[in-house]
């Protein structure tokens, strides 16, 4: 009987590579500290574990392990399910690694929210990302307080503005409700056949019909400005008040999280639009942007192309600033269809022509351009020529490569062997005789896009890990200096608050010598550079991941 | 009783040879042994054979074989004079080289065809070369291989490599210059089309250039010492496609329009790349030659990486 109720855990990790595990460990440590990092890394490596096993193997006290798991679950990085012994046995936990890797992209999410919905949107997304899950009322209050803090004296942010920004984020699906957890019933009876509730099945948030429904909350007022002198006393009272607040507001138990999928779709669309704009022109990219906007909610994830749109609909939906005539629009659409990159395809003639955006093809082209760019920067433009040649012509012999690429034989050999040793190019043997004698075998060079993309993705993970480690190293090396500068700043701040004279202030400032100041400046410069390059590598990671997922998705 | 003196026809070897030569001239297709016998019945077989051999060795007679037997043919006077003084083996080798036409023939192939030992072949080849009857041409495919052909023949394109090779050296700079010139031409055409601000279809069509136009432009530029054909220009344009700078379409064209080959024309257009250099290559790790050896705690690690240090200070 118990067998009938054993529920398999879906979403168990695919095997994580060493580089991915290393990167996850670094991210967990930076955001949550050593204990969570230890628990998380161990759980990634082991797959699924029960609480007891986890505590035993990491040799940490049980309550610390519990707290770490809570933190991870709050952020959606850890999930639990029925163990191997069925619902009656201990629950098993596993890590969802891609959520940890999404932490790299937090700055990009926040920036997108800012560009779409202004400072309010930016702060909402930032708060929710920081806390993992939040109720609407607490988010609104916190954001209003923060905005008020930055406004000039006497002004404050009204709650309704924040509420409207929040609702817009929900309407466009950037925020979604966390899937509710069914309460677990005690599994005392195995004999009677009452089906146990499906507590163990991790559900997709979109499976719930109320996923994007805003709760009715009773929230009026304005943001409160925090006075620094009241900090000490105000906080505990404010905290207690917050707990009772949400139950009063009417949305207790309804938690919201960031819908990462939606952000990823947005990034994908951005990449496609900018590619069209580079290849063709601004107007064509606007047309593609309109088409993508119209099919935002109707296209399933990982679809190969959007829903078919008729030219009439596109014409009506174009932004009014682009005043182009109908026949001109038709010409642009024809040009988009004829372009060798095949961003847009024509699927029918009704309604003035039915057009789709070829998502998978566009992603493949972007991934291919990424691969070519890496080869070009790393090995030179002639190696890049050979690489592109092999991508187009699939299989070629040594002699043919030399002839097509117009590279002298010796150099062509050298370049091909270098690419081969880096695994960017593969060698295919076609024997003429069964004994594979070298003189009687064809050796063909070839490039396979998907495995090469995977290889480069691992390189990217390793690179980001290297950048993070270097940043930690730089910080550690200059720890003494950083601590000193922090102390000086604290002294300065307190002196200023108590109204000290200018002479005292300068005396304190001079405690940091000029070379130390310079060192601090260069340290700041280094850290910024490392940070921004992490984001740049993340863009590459996003393109390659989207391409790989789109190729592997079941259709 | 009168003694009848039967005048014996002189069996002077020279006379026999001359008679045979006259017979050959009578029958330009060649005479068989039987014909000679019929003509000079008094000549013994041995003498006949000697005469024929002498003529062969001197090179005035050609020995051929047909279904009925051996044929003897008078050799061309001119070619006779050429190889005068050479012996049979040399003549044989010369024959083989002549047959190879302008593609030339490798010394090993000569050996197979003539069944002569290698040392002999080499001697003969040296001899013929000194007499300026044949020449050696280095093949561009395998630089150690030498093919032999007649002195006054032009080597075939496949041996010399065509317009891109001069003296067996691939002219990389020449190809590079042509590459850049073609690209500049196409790019300026595309820009002119873009600036014309006409309807998009017209804009795109005017940014195309046929391979014939590009060929004419390059010829007029006059940067090439060698005459380039349209196919040569098309190979250059193909390398531009593989550089990602140009794209090509083929359209149907009426036979007879300038530049059309087999009813189609190739059109080329300069294009922009669709992405900027990707994020990974903006970091030192993306270009690092020792990327695979780098790990924390090792000789090469992110903490002590020299490339990173330089890059950060930049």
From TrEMBL, chain A:
Please give the biological process terms from Gene Ontology that the record holds. Answer: DNA-templated transcription
Q: Single GO molecular-function term? A: single-stranded DNA binding
Q: Where is the RNA polymerase III subunit RPC82-related helix-turn-helix domain?
A: 23-81
* Signal peptide region: none
How is this protein annotated for GO cellular component? RNA polymerase III complex
Entries under InterPro entries matching the protein: POLR3C_WHD, RNA_pol_III_RPC82-rel_HTH, RNA_pol_III_Rpc82_C, RPC3, WH-like_DNA-bd_sf
Query: Which Pfam families does the entry mention?
Result: HTH_9, RNA_pol_Rpc82, RPC3_helical, WHD_POLR3C
Residue ranges for the region (Disordered) are 180-248
Q: Which residues form the DNA-directed RNA polymerase III subunit RPC3 winged-helix domain?
A: 371-447
Q: Which domain of life is it from?
A: Eukaryota
Keywords, alphabetical: DNA-directed RNA polymerase, Nucleus, Transcription
Which Gene3D superfamilies does UniProt cross-reference here? 6.10.140.1450, Winged helix-like DNA-binding domain superfamily/Winged helix DNA-binding domain
Which cell locations does it reside in? Nucleus
Q: Where is the composition biased (Basic and acidic residues)?
A: 228-248
Instruction: List residues of the RNA polymerase III Rpc82 C -terminal domain.
Output: 165-366
How does the annotation summarize its subunit structure?
A: Component of the RNA polymerase III (Pol III) complex consisting of 17 subunits.
Family recorded in the similarity comment: Belongs to the eukaryotic RPC3/POLR3C RNA polymerase subunit family.
Instruction: Relate the protein's function as given in its record.
Output: DNA-dependent RNA polymerase catalyzes the transcription of DNA into RNA using the four ribonucleoside triphosphates as substrates. Specific core component of RNA polymerase III which synthesizes small RNAs, such as 5S rRNA and tRNAs.
Name of the protein in its database record: DNA-directed RNA polymerase III subunit RPC3
Species of origin reads: Cyprinus carpio
TrEMBL record, chain B:
Q: Which domain of life is it from?
A: Eukaryota
Cellular component annotations (GO), alphabetically ordered: cytoplasm; nucleoplasm; RNA polymerase III complex
Q: Which InterPro entries match?
A: RNA_pol_Rpc34, RNA_pol_Rpc34-like, WH-like_DNA-bd_sf, WH_DNA-bd_sf
Give the location in the cell: Nucleus
The yes or no answer to whether the keyword Repressor is present is no
Question: Tell me, what's a Pfam family for it?
Answer: RNA_pol_Rpc34
Q: Which SUPFAM superfamilies match?
A: Winged helix' DNA-binding domain (SSF46785)
What are the entry keywords?
DNA-directed RNA polymerase, Nucleus, Transcription
Q: Which GO terms describe its biological process?
A: transcription by RNA polymerase III
**What family is this?**
Belongs to the eukaryotic RPC34/RPC39 RNA polymerase subunit family.
| Function as written in the Swiss-Prot or TrEMBL entry | DNA-dependent RNA polymerase catalyzes the transcription of DNA into RNA using the four ribonucleoside triphosphates as substrates. Specific peripheric component of RNA polymerase III which synthesizes small RNAs, such as 5S rRNA and tRNAs.
Subunit composition and interactions: Component of the RNA polymerase III complex consisting of 17 subunits: a ten-subunit horseshoe-shaped catalytic core composed of POLR3A/RPC1, POLR3B/RPC2, POLR1C/RPAC1, POLR1D/RPAC2, POLR3K/RPC10, POLR2E/RPABC1, POLR2F/RPABC2, POLR2H/RPABC3, POLR2K/RPABC4 and POLR2L/RPABC5; a mobile stalk composed of two subunits POLR3H/RPC8 and CRCP/RPC9, protruding from the core and functioning primarily in transcription initiation; and additional subunits homologous to general transcription factors of the RNA polymerase II machinery, POLR3C/RPC3-POLR3F/RPC6-POLR3G/RPC7 heterotrimer required for transcription initiation and POLR3D/RPC4-POLR3E/RPC5 heterodimer involved in both transcription initiation and termination.
What protein name does the entry list?
DNA-directed RNA polymerase III subunit RPC6
Species for this entry? Cyprinus carpio
Organism lineage string: Eukaryota, Metazoa, Chordata, Craniata, Vertebrata
